[in-house]
Amino acid sequence: MEQHVSEQYDPAQADEALAEAAHDVADVEDAEDTALEETAAADDAEQTVEVDETVDVEGADEIAAVEDDADLDEDLDEEAEAEPAEDEVAGEEPEAAEDDPLEAFRRELWAKPGDWFVVHTYSGMENRVKQNLENRIHSLNMEDYIHEIVVPTEEVAEIKNGQRKMVKRTVLPGYVLVRMDLTDESWAAVRHTPSVTGFVGHSHQPVPLSMDEVEKMLAPAVVTAAAAEAEAAAASTGGAAAAPAKKPIEVADFGLNDSVLIVDGAFATLHATITEINAEAQRVKALVEIFGRETPVELSFSQIQRV
């Protein structure tokens, strides 16, 4: 019996089998640890990639935001630089407009109430009509309807008897401008003023002037007055006037095609016909008949007189 048991159980073989089993278990555990390490490394690599991508996206967003802020700052700086220039231009325009007397006159003209009408008068009675109508406005209590009466005039240089002087001349001989609100009463007050022959246009329903027409009629006096003020200011300060408007010159003694007598010079006692007048130089060109032929000559104002 002991011999049978020993054949079935050998302690050495059992130890060797246990050692082999333990070695196999160790190999399995090492393989599992290696697999776990590889899995962990793969997970770390994926997380690193995700973090890098996130960092790159966030960094790109931050860079884009910084660039947008920089562009916005540049736009704001450009607007800040442009705004003062616009303010300066806007500030210069009103100042320039205020310095222009014609522009100031135009604004004032448009702001006034009523319409402008043209009244026909007897020739040479324009100022008399203005005075008579102003008196009638007060006596008839028409101040709320008839606002202004104007006789358009301009200042011109006139040469008479060889003497040059400044005189006021009526721009529209035989006409007076009236600014008024047209009613039956105001129409009658103007129409029945002495020396008035009627309104220009329809007798009972006159058409008012346009503002452009009024400006053309009244502007010469404004321009002349402004030029005179500029010239006086320049003279008082000792400076030169800035290109004042040139005033027209009229000759009261004679005109074109007038026949005159030469009173001085080589052609004295001869008659001549004026063909050209130079008011600035106070000289004329005329045709003188010499030996049956008309000969052009140039004479001064002092050498001729009207026949």
Automatic annotation (TrEMBL):
Sections of the chain in a coiled coil: none
Pfam family, one: NusG
Residues in NusG-like N-terminal domain copies: 113-221
Region (Disordered): 1-101
Keywords per UniProt: Transcription, Transcription antitermination, Transcription regulation, Transcription termination
Composition bias, Acidic residues: 27-101
UniProt xrefs under SUPFAM superfamilies: N-utilization substance G protein NusG, N-terminal domain, Translation proteins SH3-like domain
UniProt xrefs under InterPro entries: NGN, NGN-like_dom, NGN_dom_sf, NusG-like, Rib_uL2_dom2, Transcrpt_antiterm_NusG, Transcrpt_antiterm_NusG_bac_CS, Translation_prot_SH3-like_sf
Family stated for the protein in its record: Belongs to the NusG family.
NCBIfam families: nusG
PANTHER family associated with the record: RHO-INTERACTING TRANSCRIPTION TERMINATION FACTOR NUSG (PTHR30265), TRANSCRIPTION TERMINATION_ANTITERMINATION PROTEIN NUSG (PTHR30265:SF2)
Its biological purpose: Participates in transcription elongation, termination and antitermination.
The protein's name: Transcription termination/antitermination protein NusG
Organism: Nocardioides humi
Gene field: nusG
